[in-house]
Amino acid sequence: MKPLIVFYDGPCVFCNFWVQQLCRWDKNDQLRFARLDQKLFTAFAHERNLTLEKLDTVVAWDQAYSYALEAQAAFMILDRLGGFWKILSLFSLLPKGLTNALYRFVAKNRYSWFGKNDQCPLPDQKYTHKFLD
Question: Which residue(s) pair with 78 in the sheet?
C-alpha cells in the first residue's frame, strides 16, 4: 500500500504542529507530507481541476483511489493511522456539512489564533524521509 500523501499549509503554525504530531503517531510509516505551494500539489490540483486560489484546506491523497478535503481529509488520515486513531474516524458519520463547517471555522481563524511563519519550518531530522519535495 502506498503512503497517504497529506498536503498542508507550510507557513501555518497550527498546521505544522499537527504535521509534527502525525509524524510521531505514524508508527507504521503510512504518511508523507507536501506543502500546498509545492510543484507536486500544483500538478495534483491541475489534474483534478481544483482551484488553488480557493483551496484553504488540508488534502489527503491515497494515490490509488481518491483524495479528500477538509474534515474528510482528517478522517482519511485518522483511518490510515489505524489503531486508536481509527476510532476517532467515527465522527465521519456526523453530517458532512457539520464537520466541514467546523473545519472551515478553524481554518478561517488559524492565522489569527496561532500565527503564521515567514517560511515553512524544517522537519525534525528523524522525519525528513516523510517530506516530499
Answer: none
In this structure, is the dihedral angle defined by the CA atoms of residues 110, 22, 46 and 38, taken in order, positive or negative? positive
- pLDDT tens-digit map of 12-33: 999 999 999 999 999 999 999 9
- Is the distance from CB of 58 to CB of 74 less than 8 angstroms? yes
> Long-range contacts: 77-80, Cβ < 8 Å, 24+?
77/4, 77/6, 77/22, 77/31, 80/4, 80/30, 80/31
CA 68 – CA 57 distance, rounded (Å): 10
Distance between CA atoms of 133 and 83, rounded to whole angstroms?
29
